[in-house]
């Protein structure tokens, strides 16, 4: 059998992003919370974020980003749709089948990937596996989250960090030496950190209690300082392993696209790896932490404004609740951008 028929690497061939139009500035937040623009920008780097309108859900953002990614990828329809999200439309069913149907992808395999802010890298790895086994030829991978639905608007620590958005890519079967081939995935988790970022109510565990959940239990509770430290350790550790597997030196990386959690986290990861801050994506300044959407949104923005060019070496790394983390690498392909 020829190499071409067996290699089946997953190759990125389309990209798109979407954030809702409603801009929420630091100034607006400081009018209703005990915070300031100066505190937020100094501690996080974030200047503004986007929130959905009441009634808008994760699938709405996922469809908008998915539409753009499909347009960028050209005419061939995917046979599978993965939606990575921590804020599905409902506990049941999964959000992906609805998204696939609204995109006109009849009979596509469709399921959600739950790995919080690492979800996009986990979903990429899953899609790459589906392609390499031959289960799929072409997969739409979407990261989408509406954090404004689980963050308590009165909680000044969390309300300043998160924003809503969706980013999507299309992967097709191809060769592992092509630009766009994603690979050298390193994934990991540590469930002993479950309490460090948690929405306690709403699942099967909470149903076994005989009382109504408190306000805190219904919203995201986060131990920011501990999450900060774990995020730096796990993103830099997995990224280093990914680079070693790829045979790339840190100084050869053109773009470090880390989960957009906090500018100080991103810069600490870059420092740990020995990568200049200038090569570090900082899309969070404009959109905050958009959860599973953050990496594809940052890629889409960098591709659209010409920072990301064909042939460049890109390192992706993510960390989130779980705890869960993951990294991978690719050379940027020549893509049509639609943003
Ligand atoms: N405005 C003003 N003050 C605030 C504030 C806000 N929005 N939020 C918290 N504070 C206060 C705290 O109450 C605390 O006050 P105290 O010293 O009187 O107790 C003080 O600021 C310092 O809080 P601390 O938690 O030590 O700040 P920090 O420098 O660690 O920054 C985070 C807080 C949340 C911004 C930071 O820990 C962080 O980004 N962590 C990672 C979060 C993250 O990225 N999560 C997603 C990962 S997937």
From TrEMBL:
Region (ACP-binding): 260-264
InterPro entries: ACP_syn_III_C (IPR013747), ACP_syn_III_N (IPR013751), FabH (IPR004655), Thiolase-like (IPR016039)
Active site: 117, 259, 289
Keyword annotations of the record: Acyltransferase, Cytoplasm, Fatty acid biosynthesis, Fatty acid metabolism, Lipid biosynthesis, Lipid metabolism, Multifunctional enzyme, Transferase
UniProt GO MF annotations: beta-ketoacyl-acyl-carrier-protein synthase III activity
The protein's Enzyme Commission number: 2.3.1.180
Transmembrane segments: none
Location within or outside the cell: Cytoplasm
Beta-ketoacyl-[acyl-carrier-protein] synthase III N-terminal domain residues: 111-191
SUPFAM superfamilies documented for this protein: Thiolase-like
Domain of life per record: Bacteria
Residues annotated as domain Beta-ketoacyl-[acyl-carrier-protein] synthase III C-terminal: 243-332
Pathway terms, separated by semicolons: Lipid metabolism; fatty acid biosynthesis
Annotated catalysed reactions: malonyl-[ACP] + acetyl-CoA + H(+) = 3-oxobutanoyl-[ACP] + CO2 + CoA
Biological role: Catalyzes the condensation reaction of fatty acid synthesis by the addition to an acyl acceptor of two carbons from malonyl-ACP. Catalyzes the first condensation reaction which initiates fatty acid synthesis and may therefore play a role in governing the total rate of fatty acid production. Possesses both acetoacetyl-ACP synthase and acetyl transacylase activities. Its substrate specificity determines the biosynthesis of branched-chain and/or straight-chain of fatty acids.
Record's comment describing the protein's domains: The last Arg residue of the ACP-binding site is essential for the weak association between ACP/AcpP and FabH.
Family membership noted in the UniProt record: Belongs to the thiolase-like superfamily. FabH family.
The protein's assembly and partners: Homodimer.
UniProt-recorded name of the protein: Beta-ketoacyl-[acyl-carrier-protein] synthase III
């Amino acid at each position: 059998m020829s190499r071409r028929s067996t290699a089946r690497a997953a190759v990125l061939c389309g990209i798109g992003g979407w954030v809702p139009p409603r801009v929420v500035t630091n100034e607006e937040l400081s009018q209703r919370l005990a915070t300031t623009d100066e505190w937020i920008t100094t501690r996080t780097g974030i200047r503004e974020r986007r929130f959905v309108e009441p009634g808008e859900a994760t699938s709405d953002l996922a469809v908008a980003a998915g539409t753009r990614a499909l347009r960028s990828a050209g005419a061939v329809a995917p046979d599978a749709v993965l939606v990575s999200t921590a804020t599905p439309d409902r506990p049941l069913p999964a959000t992906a089948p609805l998204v696939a149907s609204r995109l006109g992808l009849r009979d596509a395999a469709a399921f959600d990937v739950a790995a919080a802010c690492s979800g996009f890298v986990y979903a990429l790895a899953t899609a790459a596996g589906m392609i390499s086994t031959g289960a799929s030829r072409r997969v739409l991978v979407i990261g989408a989250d509406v954090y404004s639905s689980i963050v308590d608007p009165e909680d000044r620590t969390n309300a300043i960090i998160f924003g809503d958005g969706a980013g999507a890519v299309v992967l097709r079967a191809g060769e592992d030496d092509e630009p766009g081939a994603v690979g050298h995935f390193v994934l990991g988790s540590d469930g002993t950190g479950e309490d460090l970022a948690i929405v306690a109510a709403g699942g099967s565990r909470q149903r076994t209690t005989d009382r109504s959940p408190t306000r805190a239990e219904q919203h995201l509770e986060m131990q920011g300082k501990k999450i900060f430290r774990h995020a730096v350790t796990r993103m830099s550790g997995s990224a280093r392993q990914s680079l070693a597997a790829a045979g790339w030196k840190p100084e050869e990386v053109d773009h470090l696209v880390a989960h957009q959690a906090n500018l100080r986290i991103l810069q600490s990861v870059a420092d740990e790896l020995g990568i200049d801050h200038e090569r570090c994506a900082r899309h969070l300044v404009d959109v905050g932490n958009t959860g599973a959407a953050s990496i594809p949104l940052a890629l889409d923005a960098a591709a659209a404004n010409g920072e990301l060019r064909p042939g460049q070496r890109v390192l992706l790394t993510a960390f989130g609740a779980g705890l869960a983390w993951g990294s991978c690498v690719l050379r940027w392909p020549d893509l049509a951008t639609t943003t």
